[in-house]
Amino acid sequence: MIAICKDNTKFEQELCNKGLDELIMMENAGIELANFILKKSKKFKNAKILFLLGGRNNAADGLVAIRHLKNSKAYCFNYKQSELFQKQIQILKNTGYKFLKKEPKFKHFDIIIDCIFGSGLNKNLDENLQKTLLKVNRTKALKIACDCPSGIGFDICFKADFTLCMGVVKERLLEDFAKEYVGKIKLVPLGLQLKSFATQSFLLQAKDLKLITRNVTSNKGNFGHIYVCASESAGTLTGLAALEFGAGLVSLIARSSYSPLLMLKSNINKDASAVALGMGLENLEILKDEILKQIPLVLDANCFQSENLLLHLNRSDVIITPHPKEFTNLLRLCFSEEVKVEDIQKKRFFYASKFSSVYDCVLVLKGANTIIAQKEKKYVINCGNEALAKGGSGDVLSGMIAALLGAKFSALEAAKNAVLAHALVAKKYNKNKNSFDALKLIKGLKCL
Q: Which residues belong to any copy of the YjeF C-terminal domain (predicted)?
């Protein structure tokens, strides 16, 4: 897991408390940036490298990197300069380094590095810089952002192939709106690893995945009996996903099923280890059934249209899985608040935190970067892709979560690992993304 924070301030303060000062952190950041550029430059013959510099500490990191690279050019924008930046620029000038005096032809460069503003910007870029970044974004150059693409979250933004986060990943980079601009996120150290850094937000990686394990003495009863309350088509997908992900038994509450692997039941019995409910389901009165109070639940889809959902939100063994539109319904039910989808997408962390600070259940806010939240804890998965933008993907996820609940995973652990596995299957799919569907997603679970 990789630590996430809203900004660098608290993280850098802890590093200072451990003995690092601002100059050492800047030197380490610049060296790491230079090493990464050198690594990427190997695929070019005599790579032409260009640094775009503002005048603050983010640009100072770039100046350190320039010192450690033999052949690179730098263009400085006319912004107010920090003391650190001025010192570093003087060091370079003393070595005879010459900065470009006018805007270069960006198409002539193989690698372009954004060291203009970093993560501290809170307003639109000025018009001239916007025009410049539009030209940069149109080039075929490999684009690297130092710490944070300049302009992220505003009208025009540097569009990076890689973003090198210095010491810690910034929350803003994991908002859905940022996904197409940050490229691949790489974390680089500033000199010390803070194992005790005070954060409860983390980015999950493939190596964090934990699956149901079987041994030679296992029997189906060890892995739970999952009940699915859904329409026949959606319920079949949910049930098959639960089976493929490790559930021992799966029963569908329906008159018929599209698969002989699923048992049919007329109601939920006390032997249920977990229940997945809501996918295509029309009669939501079942949410008031007393038996549900005793069983871990996954609530999805149509559940967010019913006030009966409120009966289960203050339970720590319940997982809810809304997409942004369903989340707007949830906020209206919970807070009598009308929030538009586009507002949620601009501030997903804010709204996830707002909900989780009040309710005990686990929230899975689906999206390009899915957020999993329970009280103050937040986890993000950013390895999914556009292949999952198909009907049925959410039904499969509900079945996967239910399977882990049935195998005695806690609600939070079930949500984390199911969402991560769900994303990794899509990531591993190496054919045309348009051809991906829910059945291929279920089939792909065997490759984990």
A: 203-448
Which residue type, as a one-letter code, is found at position 97? Answer: Y
In the chain, the N- to C-terminal Cα span, in Å, equals: 18
Report the DSSP beta bridge partners of residue 379. 202, 372
Sequence letter at residue 73: K
Q: Which of 205, 207, 199, 210 is nearest to 186 (CA)?
A: 205
Tokens 């369903």 correspond to 326
Distance between alpha carbon 100 and the CA centroid of its chain, in Å?
38
pLDDT at 20 over 80: no
Closest Cα partner for 212 from 440, 393, 402? 402
Q: Provide the β-strand partners of residue 53.
A: 76, 115
User: pTM for the complete prediction?
Assistant: 0.92
- Type of residue at 81: Q
CA gap 416, 380 in Å, rounded: 9
| pLDDT at residue 123, rounded to an integer | 80
pLDDT at residue 11 is higher than 90: no
Indicate the pLDDT class of residue 255, thresholds 50, 70 and 90.
confident
Q: Are 51 and 18 in contact (CB under 8 A)?
A: no
At 284, the pLDDT band (50, 70, 90 cuts) reads very high
* Residues found in the chain: 448
